[in-house]
Records
---
Amino acid sequence: MMRRKKTKRENSIDIVRGIVMIIMALDHVRDLMHVDTLTQRPTDLDTTTPLLFFTRWITHLCAPTFVFLAGTSVFLSLKNKSITQVRIHLTNRGLWLILLEFTIVNFAIFFDIGFHTLMFEVIAAIGFGFIVLGQLLKIPAKQLGILGLLIIFCHNLFPLIPFAEGSVFKTILAPFFNLTVIPLFAGKVFIVGYPPIPWLGIMLIGFASGKFFELEEEKRKKLLLQIGLSSLALFIAIRFINIYGDPVQWVTQKDSVFTFLSFMNISKYPPSLLFCLAVLGITFLLLAFAENFHNRIKEVTSVYGKVPLFYFVLHFYLIHIIALIMLFAQGFNWAQLEFATGTFGRPKGLPSGWSLGAIYLIWIAVVVSLYKPCKWFGAYKAKNKNWWLRYI
């Protein structure tokens, strides 16, 4: 059977996904190689700078857009397949992504052969979402979208659940809703960085939004634009009230710039209501205008967007190898590198890393160097029907 040719509307998904994946590499280069990564937290207003804050904030777009478009892609995949076929594929792919997270991806992050830190992050969250979504496919998309909105608008109420802190019930539920660190054995820890329920909500909204791609171009663009602007307006209104929507309230700072940073300092772990409104609002705007971008921009970004998992794994290994080269170039030897402590190999207590300007240059180099491999793999995937290609 020949692969279904993507429509112009569906190509916009690859374009937007490619944009956020390019931006994603910036965050990971900064995380592994910035000189002040251990002492200058980008969102800590006591230590950050406006440029460092922006460098971190812009990458907030990545994971929500990635998860949202994963849901949209599932909706579009239903066009030529039965619900049973899609459910089986989603279950298998979900289990595969969770396995991949705890092996290939976790090793790429830490380069720790002892796996002292196991992290449930975006790839596993997508895997969890696929498994759950696969069981819900018989429910109309509109109802799943409403469920997704209920999750996003209400999951910040979890701390108000009337059960005693430390109770068995609340302890079991916590990792599904909140950032959670669970001690294991022999000094190992399991970190739920991406609590699966809030991210499932984003995927369900993305699935329901797949119906927009059935509309005529002008109507679809108008609707996406309206949703995006409404989401951003709602973000501003709720954030200004400063009562609900994010666990951290904004406060007046030393000057107007840092007061603005405080206003924009929204929580990703877990993704708060305000976080979702802001970043998904921008995602809707990108989808509305993607087809109007310059042809060269569309061509380049779609190369990355067509092979998201391939790019994700490859870019992490490349960045971490460059980080090790950086450490050796700065005079460290192998015995000094620390991989079991969660510092990506960087020795604790010893200065290492490069300036933010250098981080931007390395980011550009990483993205450029991955262009041809992604283009080659995208062409290979389009021409071949091997079953395993559906999982990469």
---
Amino acid sequence: MVGEFIRAAEKAIEKIYSWPRKRVSIYHHNDADGLCSGAILASAFQRKGYGVKRACLEKPYPAILEKIYRKQGEILIFADFAGRIAPLLSRLNQGRNLTIILDHHVAEEATDQMVYNLDPDLFGLKGDRDISASTTCYIFARTMDEYNIDLAHIGTLGAVGDGFFVQGRLVSENRQAALAAAGQGRLEIVAGADGEEYMLETAQGKISCAELGEYLDILGGAGYNSDGPDAGIEVCLKGPDADSDRVVEHLKRIKEDAFTLEIEKLKRGSLIQSPNIQWFNLERRFYPMGVKMVGVFCETLKEQQFIDPHKYIAGFQIIPDEIPGFGPVDMSQVKISMRVAEYLERQIRDRSAMGLDVLLPQATAELGGFSDACHSLTAATTLAIGLEEKLIGEMEKLITTFGK
């Protein structure tokens, strides 16, 4: 469990400290958990005197990874993704760089001794229950130097933003981070009838971590193509201010207008039905918002009356051929995000229905697509444009044979 994780982290940190170049490149996800992860790692390394280059990615796309791994002799850190693709990173790396993975999704072992996969899934901790990526990064940072315990509140913010609770409360390592933050006076844990609320101390007063997590999701998702992630990192470290408030309000209006228009289209018949899946294709209609927004939109649809609670929800969005921080990249890819309403959620938890962490990656693999970070109740992969209907068909086959 966490003791084994810490021992593995200590070995990776020892390797980092012995590395000849005192600089790191940090690649992190763009949701609240990923932004908090990036903020924690950037702070921890800067405190140790390292030069830090940071880039925010919606997914570690193979085309981007190929660009990254043209480097040699570097320290490369991946946060809130890449646990599953450790074998791919190993093949790309071939011992040329020191690679550290700090994820919390379902993971596979690395095959290159210079790739350290510190995904807690490999140490018996569940990423959709026990530990977020930000809490993983917080424990890693604290292992680097106990002084970094003061970053516990950022770990808690990311954990709450990811939304994995048991009976309305953070548990396991997520809870330990929250208790550490509360002990420092940076967080208040408020018990209620349905669980707990986590209130962060900021310059603007106490703010709910759930509310601030949504705030970060807007910056990282709706603002992905307009410097939103950089603003999100500042919010993680310093709290919101009047400038970030204005940016978020502007992005919220863009998001709400786009969501309203798309819901009306779905109500009028653009929601496609197969036996077990209800799905839609946004194509490029949500641009300039990031492709994370198809997942956020699926989350919104869970509560809509016209959605069938017995069917999986799936949405497609085309990935632009330009990635912030990397310039033009020939993608020709579409992202699929999936969610489930409460009825199917209960069935997945009871193991009487197929979890998304199995269903979507397996179907994607059949069509040569790319999978890295999937949970049982939330998942996303990518594949070539034009294969959308075939992917739905592959998933229908898997659903039909589940349990037989």
---
Amino acid sequence: MKSRSRGIAVALSILFAGVAGAGIALGITAALGDLGSTTVVTRSAETPASLQQPVVTGGKSLTIPEIYERAAPGVVQVTSTQVIKGQQVNPFFQTQPQKVEALGSGFVIDKQGDIVTNYHVIQGATSIEVLFSNNVTTKAIVVGTDKSTDLAVLKVNVSPSALTPLPLGNSAAVEVGDPVVAIGNPFGLDRTVTSGIVSAIYNIGDGTRASQYNFPLLSQNNFPIPAIQTDAAINHGNSGGPLINSLGQVIGVNSQIETGGTSQGNVGIGFAIQSDTVKQVAAQILKSGKAIHAFLGIGNIGGVTPEVARLYRLPVDHGLLFGHVEKGTGAAKAGLKAGTRNVTVAGLSYWLGGDIIVSAGGESVGSSYGKLANVIAAHKPGDKLSLEIYRGNTKMTVTATLGTRP
């Protein structure tokens, strides 16, 4: 699992479970030659039925053994291999290339052999193998990846009868307290099941780069990912595996854990990428080999509170302040003005002196960055988005043409 720190009162370590320090290292051996690059295929395909309509069971909750019996055959172990070039120690000696193997998880989404996993599980891999529940191992190729949501789709060439697709459920219907189970390969242990509840839900969308807020699930290029927090135990090797609801539907892809900086294992805080994001991204990858996301181009965002509005005599007690506009983006071309003065209220930072966004596409954003981000995520690059703003005490509307996320 890849680790990083987050800027909150106590430094906490978040760990990924995949290749770049992220899965479970199986060992390092000398490589005799170049294994080549991971193959990327682009194709036109119908969106799998599991991505279009979740399969329900008449609303009847399943027991954990029932969920496991149905879902475990569709969960796979992903082994990715990366070749590290030898190092020139001195003019007379160079170390041998090293082959590093790491483990992650994944799950089948259709009868065509498509498998969803985390991008970080297969990042930099020169070869990928998938192990099925019948102990059959086969090579996999990369259909496409999306760094911004930490997702990847693999493909294996096996008989459809050997595949057990898992249905993707509706993550928008998930509620805090819902029971969930996770199935994966922690520490290389084959198809382990753990259970827990949904601890929190983060509907933060995909609109712009992370700001002052403490987003629990960030991509490697620093974009927030809609997340489900769970206390179901997930560890090294679980990344890419499914988080499943009581109906047997996948509602998330397990991606990161919080360790509190005290260990390398589970402490009851894990994060999964919401299934609605998985559906959107996987459908794009299956159609074109890649996923694209709309991008507005503002940053350092803070939600107006009644206290901030009162202290600094703002024209509204809700809306979004921002301290950065990226050059050349839709926000810049629409003439949005960033704040020029930074203040701190109740420990949070706000940028004053610029525009205040109060609605986007006709929808109020309240004081939640997530609402704006979700509106942007529902659009495509090139779409025009109307923004209602306050500039000083003057209310006005500007139109931004959304770009493509860098």
